[in-house]
Amino acid sequence: MNIPQDRSYTKDHEWVKIEGNRVTVGITDYAQQQLGDIVFVENPMEGDEVQEGDSFSVLESVKAAADVYSPLAGVVVGVNEELENDPSLINSDPYGEGWLAIFEMEEGTEIPDLMNADEYAVFVKEQE
Amino acid sequence: MEQLKKTPLYQQHVAAGGKVVDFGGWALPVQYSGILEEIAAVRKQAGLFDVSHMGEIMVTGPNAGDWLQYMLTNDISKLVDGQVLYTMMCYPEGGVVDDLLVYRYNADKYLLVVNASNAEKDWQWLNEHVKDGVTLENISDDTAQLALQGPLAQQVLQKLCKEDLDDIGFFYFRDQLDLGGVKALVSRTGYTGEDGFEIYCQPADAPALWDAILAAGDKQVLPCGLGSRDTLRFEANLPLYGQEISRDITPLEARLGFFVKLKKGDFIGRDALARQKEEGLKRRLVGLTMVERGVPRTDYPVYDEADNQVGHVTTGSYSPTLDENIANALVDSQHIQEGTKLWVGVRKRRLEARVTKLPFYKREGK
């Protein structure tokens, strides 16, 4: 199981990479394995205002559709359009080319309940 | 997983990394290497499925044939020894109890292969109607079933078998074939739209047979899960009980009228189905191809141009073989014309689709 040290993780098996007010979000290696081959992505729109816990993206495997819930409140400022042509990027490179969206948060916002890589590794073990 | 029923191949699934899930009370693999890879293997090479959860009921006795003719919608009297028939079993109201295969051993001996999810209900239904001169035996627990499907299926199975498999035609079977030391019933049937075989054997023999087929396949045969099986059957327009047919959906509505022989004599459901045919069908199953981006799923609503709901999706999926998003939908009969525009409600949006010709997928040369 690949869990890079350079970012934080949520209990919904998403990763977040915080750079100032900008936060890039994707799903973890564990999450993509659980979903299986992803064949369709419904992206958010740039400018979408999202509350914490809102579904901002839908990932569909051959068998089912899965909502991705936002770990933060913010505005979508970046969308990975490449996923519409090649949804399998989420399977092959979940932490890189398979990123889902970039959000801009208000100044001083904190994202609650984040785990570091080691904590997330323990969390995943408990799930299994 | 503890409370789930296990097939004789459970250890094979776990050992080979199958993703085992609760499949209607059975611990079965939804996938092995990946659904896309498994679908491609069955379409281009071959795949091996454990379908031991299916139900098997033996029907014997001097009145077995006549009685089945009354219980089932297709014409059993046309069967010869060693032949297989696909049929519905209906309620008096015309809805479907189950869809099943009938194997004729001889005039007094038949095997019914029924859906796992309906096996108990079928067993009760048959027993409620059983007559003198007919004996029923539920042999589900004493029967394992493997399905080897795909263009290489025959070539691979032939390596384990001295008899020429060319002698088994489409929807025919041979009993007591020797497959590398295992005695099995082999039929040229399946649920994927490809050439292939369904193989029935003793549970104790199943692991050895499973391993022998994979070894004979020499990496060309992939172990496959039930996830790929469902997409394969859907692409080939094979119905799934509970989705395309059910107690509330008749075979005529589901475009399975070919398997309902209204002129063969009396059978359960005939009057209702004959009436439905005479009065005209109010709704029918159609194929939909999505025009706008989006994946249709079971139970999503279907709308006409004026945004009235005119039906629902029975099965929908991305089709890896066609690289399109497709669906079966049960819709009001005025919307069944090929090319008709319909809209599928996908979450909050209405996405445009077209009524298309069925089946979505048909293998070459068939």
Features:
heterodimer, A: 128 residues, alpha+beta, OB fold (Dihydrolipoamide Acetyltransferase, E2P), three-stranded antiparallel sheet, 4 helices, 9 strands, B: 366 residues, Gyrase A, domain 2, Alpha-Beta Plaits, Elongation Factor Tu (Ef-tu), domain 3, six-stranded mixed sheet, 20% helix, globular
Spell out the blueprint of helices and strands.
The complex is a heterodimer of chains A (128) and B (366).
Chain A: E1 8-9, E2 14-19, E3 22-27, H1 29-35, E4 38-42, E5 49-50, E6 55-61, E7 65-69, E8 74-79, H2 82-85, H3 89-92, E9 101-104, H4 117-127
Antiparallel strand pairs in A: 1-2, 2-3, 3-9, 4-6, 5-8, 6-7, 8-9
Chain B: E1 5-6, H1 10-15, E2 19-23, E3 26-31, H2 35-44, E4 46-50, E5 55-60, H3 64-71, E6 83-90, E7 96-106, E8 109-114, H4 119-129, E9 135-138, E10 144-149, H5 153-158, E11 173-179, E12 182-187, E13 196-201, H6 206-217, E14 221-224, H7 226-235, H8 270-279, E15 283-290, E16 301-303, E17 309-319, E18 324-332, E19 341-346, E20 349-356
Parallel strand pairs in B: 1-3, 4-14
Antiparallel strand pairs in B: 2-3, 4-10, 5-8, 5-9, 6-7, 7-8, 10-13, 11-12, 12-13, 15-18, 15-20, 16-17, 16-19, 17-18, 19-20
Helix pairs in contact in B: 2-7
